[in-house]
Amino acid sequence: xxxxxxxxxxAINSGIMNQVISILxxxxxxxxxxxxxxxxxxxxxxxxxxxxxxxTNGKKPISQGLKENCDVPLVRGRIMESFxxxxxxxxxxxxxxxxxxxxxxxxxxxxxxMVGLYGDGI
Length: 122
Hints:
four-stranded antiparallel sheet, disordered N terminus
């Protein structure tokens, strides 16, 4: 029995990717989570951390975002690479002091023969 897999090429188009970059640019400390379902981006979560020491030291964690020397084409490529062949799961982009420090990919797998057995969904 053939599985119905959707093409991952439709997961993030250039307009959405521009919005993701904009969200990254507005985050100084925290992470941005891209949630995928059926090989498509279905949700973007932004978790910003504000440290009291940054506020007292004159840093602007809310409005500063990524530092100007961020290589945006490299970031775009790494994000696109992270969701390659990702049907279900998430890509988490960690940001510290205006720098992207890591990209984590968590893949979830669904088994059609087990759907309904232990409950539907992830």
